[in-house]
Structure formats: C-alpha cells, structure tokens
Design a protein that fits this description.
CATH superfamily of the largest domain: Glycosidases
Helix content: 25-40%
Strand content: 15-25%
Bound molecules: acetamide
Largest sheet: 8 strands, parallel, barrel
Structural class: alpha/beta
Shape: elongated
Number of helices: 15
CATH topology of the largest domain: TIM Barrel
Radius of gyration: 23 Å
Number of strands: 19
C-alpha cells in the first residue's frame, strides 16, 4: 500500500494524536445515517459531510437531528459535548466498525473533524460528477483521533489591492484554506494601486481608487453586499475575515481619490507600478482622522470578527515622531469602534494597547521590540511570504526576501522565532500572498500550494509531532485530491507526488 492509498497516511495537518484501531473499518452503505445536533452551524457542517459522502458513494445519507433516537449502528454521529475537548476548536473522532462518533465542544470543532473525515474518504468525495459505474463500497479506517490546534491564529492573507480578485475567487480561496483548517483570511483591501471596498461616506475611494491595478488593468472593488456575502461565506467555513486598510503609507489610491486628503490639496495621479514607500496620508490634517474614523466605522459595521488591520508598514516620508503619533491615534479610533488593532511590525515602536496585535514580517525587524509586543502574529517574509519564488526558475512571484522551497516554509518553530516573547503572546502564524505578479487564482494557487499546506501544519500540529520526513510523504499523497479539486499546485521536485490517474 502506498501512502496515497493509506487514508491515515495522508492527513494534513497531522492531528495531535492518531491511534489506529487495528480492526475492521466502518463501511458506508445506503442505510448509513448522519446524526447531527440542532443549530444552523452544526447542521451546515452535517450537510457538508453529506455532500462528501454522496459524491463518494452515489447515495445521500439521511440526516437526523440529535433529539430523535438514533440507531445504534450504521451511524455517523456528530455531537456537541462540552467535555469533548479542552479546545474550542478541538474534536474527538472515533471510527469503529459499527459507528463513527465525532464529538466537539463547538460547531467549529465539528467542522474540523469533518475536514479530517473528508481526507479519509476516497478522492471521489471531491468530484461532483460520479466517477464509477456501480456504487463502490466506501470505508473509513478504524481509528481514534484526538485533535486540537496548536495556535488560535492560523492565517492566510490575500492582497486584492495590487490585482483585484472577484468574490468567487476569494470564495475559492476560503474553500482551499479552510480545508486545511486555516481560520483567518486577512484581506489587504487598500494600497497604492487600488481601493477595494465601497465606503458610503467616501464614495470616490471605490469609484476612482478602485478603478486601477498593477499593470494598468481595470481593478475593481467589493460592494457592501459583496463584502457581506464574503463574510457570511467565510463564517460557514469557520474563517474570520480580517479587513486591512493600509495606512499611513501605501495610500496613493485614497490620495488620488480625494484632493482634500493631501497636504498640498492636490490629488496625485493614480499609480499602477510596484514601488513602495512614496505615499503617506497627511498626518497633520484633521480631515485625515475624520476620514480614518469613517472608513473604520463603515468597514467595522460589516465585520463581525474582532480585528481591524491598520497596516503601518513601509512609511518613508514621515518623521519617527509623526509615525508614532499617527499609529497611537489610529489605534484609539479602531478601539473606539470595538475592534483590536492589528499592524505590521513597524507599529511596535508605538505605545500599544494590551489588546493590539503586531504582525511580524521583516526578517530583520528588531527582536527586542517584537518581544515587547502585547500579541504577535508571525509572518516572517523569508519563511511564509507565499509570493516569494520557490527557486530561481519560478516564473511567478518575487524574491526580495528569499527563494522559499517547501521545507523552508515548514521547518521552523514559531515559539522560538522571537526570543524573549512574552509567554502566550504568539497567537499564531499567517501566510501572506502579495499580488504584484499574480493576476488570477491559478497564479495564486501555484504559489500557495504546496506551501500553504506546510503553513497549515505549522500552525495546527504540536511542534513535537512535526517532522519534514513524514510531512513530505503525506504531502506527496495530496496530489490526487488537489488534482480532483483543480488546484494548480507546483509539483515541487523534491516531493514524491502520488499518481493522479
Ligand atoms: C509588507 O510586506 N510590506 C507588510
């Protein structure tokens, strides 16, 4: 049996604890039923499981809600149970010959347990069209899995500003990241080259600022209804959207939309190149803070998650005093709208609130300042900037931080990256993708996969359970499933990819 044929040999991220049962597998038959707890979120998770099973077997199981008596056998039982895990996102999965029991404290835990079951099903579970003549016998291997994430912040970032990505493209990315148990999608919604979200009180931001992108293409922006639709879609995948409006730098699209925001009172031309550091909001004007307050207010009104990312990176035209003052003032605005501020690691020079979060990205950022940060998200550019090339020959992407082969994304420990970091301050890891060279999802997928799977395991699996050798084998086993899903992944030559028929 090759790794790809062994269901337990293809789990990514590797669960905390996997005890193979040794006995007979659970066979899914036309009589198998799914039992699910009441509540919309849990029912949605049960419906997702139904879809995977219907695709794999050709038969849609019935779903019974939990208060109805469940047959003791031939059941896949999903249950909410406060004792199931010490983690809100954890789950406990027992697959026995007569019964599958998936217990979790919350619907999020059920969602992650169902992602694990999905990986244990044959890849026919990924195809909408039936791939066989007679319904096959589909089994799940006998096993007991106890699982919970290492970090609460398991993030991906998509830069929709340099090139715009449609609602359907972002939903596709949510599908792919959540399948790997990633739970944050940070959307970089504004930069020099484009403003990507409708702000009713400042309509020209989207109308004018949204009409450009790198290379001179048409750009685009999300209407409020579209953004709401994205947030709702993310919620059913247990992904929290983290909106970012980058400021005070990376603001040419805003400055070009409103002359009043400029110190000289005249608007610059739109910008479609890829230089950084030349733009900055006018930090001495009152209107700048009115603008920020209204933009934050309008975005926060549509954003149930507790975070607002205010950027703060690569400001080259302000004095250190102006910069610190600006960050502290923006932090207050974000707090006044009930959100926690996230900022790129430059913001660590400011006096930060205990709730604020610093996103580490510069490999040479001061470790001392980082160590003093209230909370940290780790996105070291030479490890997990997925827009970096894999190797010199990679056509897409950039290489200013490093070439990043898969092992380089995988083989490091988030708990030791910042020596002296406050205990518990590392919330987790996030893998950004900047889109200077990426114009569509096929490009994004090529740089994200396989490295996003490496980052997912880095963020989920305990450090002591991770090893490049076993990861590499499990990674090779993803090829048939990723091919079934149409993922345009890079066939990294050091990985032994399973045949994809
Ligand atoms: C960044 O890459 N400028 C955060």
């Amino acid at each position: 049996m090759t790794t790809a044929d062994d269901p337990l040999g293809r789990l990514i991220p590797l669960p905390q604890c996997v005890e193979p049962g040794g006995g007979a597998p659970f066979a899914i038959t036309p009589q198998t039923i799914i039992v699910a707890p009441e509540g919309a979120l849990a029912m949605d998770v049960a419906a997702q499981l139904l879809t995977f099973i219907r695709r794999a077997t050709g038969v849609a199981p019935r779903i019974l809600v939990a208060r109805e008596p469940a047959a003791p056998t031939n059941v896949i039982a999903l249950a909410l149970d406060p004792a199931a895990s010490s983690s809100d996102e954890g789950y406990d999965l027992t697959i026995a010959p007569a019964r599958v029991t998936l217990r979790a404290k919350t619907p999020a835990g059920l969602f992650y347990g169902v992602r694990t079951i999905r990986q244990l099903l044959p890849i026919t579970a990924e195809y909408d069209a039936l791939l066989y003549r007679a319904p096959p016998v589909v089994t799940l291997p006998a096993v007991h899995i106890v699982d919970a994430p290492r970090f609460e912040w398991r993030g991906a970032m998509l830069d929709v500003a340099r090139h715009f990505f449609s609602v359907d493209e972002v939903k596709r990315y949510i599908d792919l990241i959540s399948m790997h148990k990633i739970n944050r999608l940070h959307l970089h919604l504004a930069d020099d080259q484009g403003w990507r979200i409708e702000i009713p009180s400042w309509p020209d931001l989207a109308r004018k600022g949204g009409a450009t992108e790198v290379g001179g293409g048409l750009g685009g922006y999300y209407t409020r209804d579209q953004y709401k639709d994205l947030v709702a879609y993310a919620e059913t995948h247990f992904v929290t959207i983290v909106p970012e409006i980058d400021m005070p730098g990376h603001t040419n699209a805003a400055l070009a939309s409103y002359a009043d925001l400029n110190c000289k009172g005249t608007a610059p031309a739109p910008y479609t190149g890829t230089e950084v550091g030349f733009s900055a909001l006018c930090v001495d004007l009152d209107v700048t803070y009115k603008f920020i307050d209204e933009v934050v207010r309008d975005i926060v009104a549509l954003t149930p998650g507790p975070y607002f990312h205010a950027g703060g990176d690569e400001v080259k035209t302000l004095t250190p005093e102006q910069y610190r003052m600006f960050v502290e003032r923006v932090q207050k605005i974000v707090e006044s709208h009930g959100k926690r501020m996230v900022g790129w690691d430059e913001v660590s020079v400011a006096t930060l609130l205990p709730t604020s979060i610093v996103q580490h990205w510069r490999p040479d950022a001061s470790k001392q300042l980082l160590a003093g940060s209230p909370h940290l998200i780790l996105s070291p550019a030479d490890r997990v900037y997925l827009d970096m090339k894999y190797e010199d020959a990679t056509l897409l992407g950039l290489n200013w931080a490093a070439n990043i082969p898969v092992q380089r994304s995988y083989d490091w420990d988030p708990d030791t990256l910042v020596p002296g970091a406050r205990p518990g301050s590392v919330l987790g890891v996030e893998a950004p993708i900047w889109s200077e060279t990426l114009t569509n999802m096929r490009d994004v997928e090529y740089l994200a996969f396989p490295r996003l799977a490496a980052v997912a395991e880095l963020a989920w699996t305990p450090q002591a359970e991770r090893s490049w050798d076993t990861f590499k084998r499990r990674l090779g086993a993803q090829a048939p499933r990723w091919t079934a899903l149409g993922i345009n992944f890079f066939r990294a030559p050091e990985i032994d990819w399973a045949p994809t028929r």
